[in-house]
Amino acid sequence: MSSKTQKLLVAAIDLGTDSSGYAFSFSHDPTEVMIRKWNSGPGMSSDKQPTCVLCNPAGQFHSFGYEAENKYTELSQVKEHDNWYFFRKFINMLSDKQVDMGFELTDEKGLKMPAIKIFAMAIRYFKDHVLQELKIAGRGQTLNDIHWVLPVPTSWTDSVKNFLRKAANEAGIDGANLTIVLAPDAAAVYCEALPSDRLSCGGRFDDDKYMVLDLGDSKAVFTVHEKQPNGKIQEVHEASGGSWGSTRVDEEFTQMIINIVEDHTFKEFCDNSPVDLLNMRRELEINKMIYSRNDNCCKIVIKVPVCLGTTYFKNTGKTVKDAVEQSPYKGKRIWMGDRIRFDAELFRSLYKNSISNITNHIENICQKPGVKGIPTFLMIGKFSEFQIVQEAVIKAFPNSKVVIPDEPDLAVVKGALLLGHKLGQICDYNFELQQRTNKDHSSVVSTFAKHDEDVYSDDCAKGAKCYSSYDLSDKGEDALSSDYVEMSMHRRAIGGLETQLETQMTLEANTTRSPTDDELFALSRQLNKLDKEWWLLAKLLGLSDKQVYEIERGAGSKHIGRQYYTMLKVWRGQNAGQEKGSVRYLIRQLGEAGIDLKMTDTVFGN
Q1: Domain of residue 574, CATH code
Q2: Cα torsion at 418, 423, 424, 430 (round to 10°)?
Q3: If exposure means fewest CB atoms within 10 Å of the residue's CB, which of 99, 437, 484, 599 is most exposed?
């Protein structure tokens, strides 16, 4: 068994080069992941924020992500930013370095601060957000209930990882509650856990040898993995790559504008109108995401600040229309008023350099000794979400299986969660499932583990997810075992091989009708009088952790009756017209939760 204590939940913080985010899940259902959505603009939300930290002139933390970006841009607009510290993409500054605690980061204006201070600020920001989310939901978990996981690039040296540990400690995370994992390893574990219908290849990701294509915002990083007979994953070709991510598309867009209005005009615009520049970049990002889902769009329209055209006119005495006619885009009506209009072919050309570099680099790796004949490519990262990139890789390597998970940009953080749960919850045996139903076989009464030997770990006795042997003894945290077996969750104790979990029902409803609002309200009032955890019933009724979490946030932690009522309505709604949405099923689950069923006589008239 693991030496680490089982925590109530695991939280993963993904500090990326360009964007960062976090996710968490509870130990009783590790695959039900909660991810914070961030406001990235009017009517827009994102799973991650820009990786940037803003400190005031005194060197104190002010903000992170979108808030930091907005504030610093506003300060720049009025020329009040000189004494503020703004660190963007600071993760990059640590790659391939031997760092010590005195290592300093330099911001965009040349101001310096200790690197450990900036990293601690970023980690503390996400740590505090997790704790605040739990507090709002009224769950009652504290810092000591959480195990933290930080995924890192494969290029990071041991000294950088040690530096990150110390930064996390400075942020308030105890070293005993922290695990550092490699990002491609985490992504691979996540994809292995996914059912086939959530993978683009239409089958399980279970290959012994594969290449991880981590196509992020700035970088494209390629690593070749091979599973060993003992289940561990070995890196058979070290990480390599280049700056061929989605921001390369931004650079191509910028270069297109420079080709029209000339470099000095664009530089003047950037210096004098930082707010307009930021808005234009975000407008481009929105359109990139639209295009990522449908690269056959007839038109892409991007709003361009009017001041860019007026600056060009001031400098040259010519209009933007004149500029287009003198540019490589002569004869194309691409810039009209405050809009740049792309047809599908022109917008696709912005991706050409990135895609050719990606496919060429993959081809070069595949020619290396010991790497030839890779059967599978695993695509993760933000740029892997783009249909044009996916199709290019598939076309370039028709004999290889290309695996793309749902939400490839979240594969690392979700995989990090799974690894975090593995470390705290380990079983030395592989198990199969056995289910016991009630007499008419209409529902499952219990789910428990079965093994050839009458041996059960403590985790199995709790109905937890069980994993096969997970040995980290010889390679430290970089080694991992991926051959785990998922088990169905059940909140009742399992005990031994012959244990039977019988329902406590004393009443069987004689109807399969759906309960009315009045009945659910009356039942909620009755349940509110009991000393019971309402979410236990919610889980028995099939609600996910995410639904429970949202109900708690919406109803408020102090309004238990309201939580019961909302929960019951959600259950009824998602099971409408099914046996699982009937009065009979509800009463059965009340009995399963150990609730005295006499109250149902009054509520349902049975």
Answers
A1: 1.10.533.10
A2: 80
A3: 437
Assess whether 58 and 182 both reside in one domain.
Answer: yes
Residues 305 and 371 in one domain: no
Q: Which residues of 269-302 are buried (b: 16+ CB within 10 A; e: fewer)?
A: beeebbebbbbbebbbbebbeebbeebebeebeb
Q: Say if 4 falls within a structural domain.
A: no
Dihedral over alpha carbons 58, 62, 64, 69 (to 10 degrees): -90
Decide if 385 is inside a domain: yes
d(CA 406, CA 565): 33
Q: Is 37 exposed, middle or buried (0-12, 13-18, 19+ CB in 10 A)?
A: exposed
Structure confidence by residue, pLDDT tens digits, 65-92: 999 999 999 999 999 999 999 999 898 8
Do both 342 and 254 map to the same domain? yes
CB 180 within 8 A of CB 164: yes
166-217 pLDDT per residue, tens = 999 999 999 989 999 999 889 988 888 877 767 776 566 777 889 999 999 8
| DSSP line for 101-141 | TT-EEE-TTS-EEEHHHHHHHHHHHHHHHHHHHHHHHT---
Q: Are both 142 and 37 inside the same structural domain?
A: yes
